[in-house]
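Work Package 4 report. The design task specified in the project plan requires that, given a folded chain encoded as C-alpha cells, an amino acid be chosen for each position. We show below one input record used in the internal validation round.
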C-alpha cells in the first residue's frame, strides 16, 4: 500500500469552496478523509461521491468549530476510533465586507472567534498528537489580505494577518518535532466567499480571480515541499511583493481601491 492509503487528512470547512476542493484532490491521491463543517447534508453528499469515485474511507463530522468544546469532542471521537490525523487542512473561516462601525459587534467577534480562536484551537489539539508521533503536516489558510490592512475588511484582514504570523512562527517551532506548518495565502478566488461575505466584485478583482483547483494544488505542493508560506498566482505574488517593497501609505491606498472600487 502507498503512504497515501495509510494516512488521514482532516479538512475543516469541507462543505464548500477550498475545503471541498482540498477533499477532492486528496481523495484523488488516495488519502482517507475526515470532512468537518456545520452543513451535514453537503458533507454527506460529498463524502458519498468521493467514496464511490476513489474507493477511500471518508468520515463525516458535523462540528461547529466556533465552539471550543466541540473541537475537543471531535478530537476525542477520532481518537476513540483509532484515527490519527496525518495532514490537517485548517481551512474553516468567515469574512464580511463593510464599514467596521456599521456592523454589529457580535458579527465582528464571531469572525474573530472562528478565524483566530478556533483555528488556533484546532491547530493546538491535533499538533499535540503529531508532535508525539514526530510527524505530520498542517496547512493554515490565510489570505492575500494578510499583507494589508484594508478598509471595509478591517477585522477579516487583521484575522488573516494573525493566521499568517502564527503559521510562520509555528513553522519554525514545529520543525524540530518533525511537523511541517505551511500558510496558504490565496487572492480573489471563485469559491462562493464573495457572496457569503457580501463582497463587491470590482473590475480589478474579476480580472485576477482564480479557480479553486490551482490554488489548492499550490497549497498541497507547498505543504509537501515544506515551504513556510505560498501565494498562488503571479498577480497575487506581485501584490504581496508590493506590500513589502513600497511605502505602506501608497500600497494601502492602491489595494483599497482594488478591493473597494
Amino acid at each position: 500500500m502507498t503512504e497515501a492509503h495509510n494516512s488521514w487528512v482532516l479538512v475543516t470547512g469541507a462543505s464548500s469552496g477550498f475545503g471541498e476542493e482540498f477533499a477532492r484532490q486528496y481523495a484523488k491521491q488516495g488519502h482517507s478523509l475526515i470532512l468537518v463543517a456545520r452543513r451535514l447534508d453537503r458533507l454527506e453528499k460529498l463524502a458519498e461521491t468521493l467514496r464511490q469515485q476513489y474507493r477511500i474511507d471518508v468520515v463525516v463530522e458535523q462540528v461547529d468549530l466556533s465552539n471550543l468544546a466541540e473541537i475537543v469532542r471531535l478530537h476525542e471521537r477520532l481518537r476513540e476510533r483509532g484515527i490519527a490525523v496525518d495532514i490537517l487542512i485548517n481551512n474553516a473561516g468567515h469574512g464580511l465586507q463593510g464599514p467596521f462601525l456599521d456592523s454589529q459587534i457580535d458579527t465582528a467577534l464571531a469572525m474573530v472567534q472562528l478565524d483566530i480562536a478556533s483555528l488556533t484551537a484546532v491547530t493546538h489539539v491535533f499538533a499535540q498528537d503529531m508532535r508525539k508521533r514526530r510527524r505530520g503536516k498542517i496547512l493554515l489558510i490565510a489570505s492575500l489580505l494578510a499583507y494589508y490592512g484594508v478598509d471595509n475588511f478591517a477585522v477579516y484582514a487583521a484575522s488573516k494577518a494573525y493566521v499568517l504570523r502564527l503559521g510562520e512562527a509555528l513553522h519554525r517551532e514545529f520543525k524540530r518535532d518533525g511537523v511541517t506548518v505551511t500558510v496558504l495565502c490565496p487572492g480573489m478566488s471563485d469559491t462562493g466567499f464573495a457572496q457569503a461575505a457580501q463582497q463587491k466584485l470590482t473590475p480589478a478583482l474579476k480580472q485576477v480571480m482564480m479557480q479553486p483547483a490551482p490554488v489548492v494544488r499550490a497549497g498541497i505542493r507547498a505543504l509537501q515541499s515544506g515551504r513556510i508560506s505560498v501565494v498562488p498566482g503571479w498577480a497575487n505574488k506581485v501584490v504581496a511583493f508590493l506590500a513589502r517593497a513600497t511605502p505602506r501609505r501608497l500600497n494601502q491606498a492602491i489595494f483599497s481601491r482594488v478591493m473597494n472600487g
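Residues 7 and 86 are 6 Å apart (CA to CA). Validation will be extended to a larger panel in the next phase.
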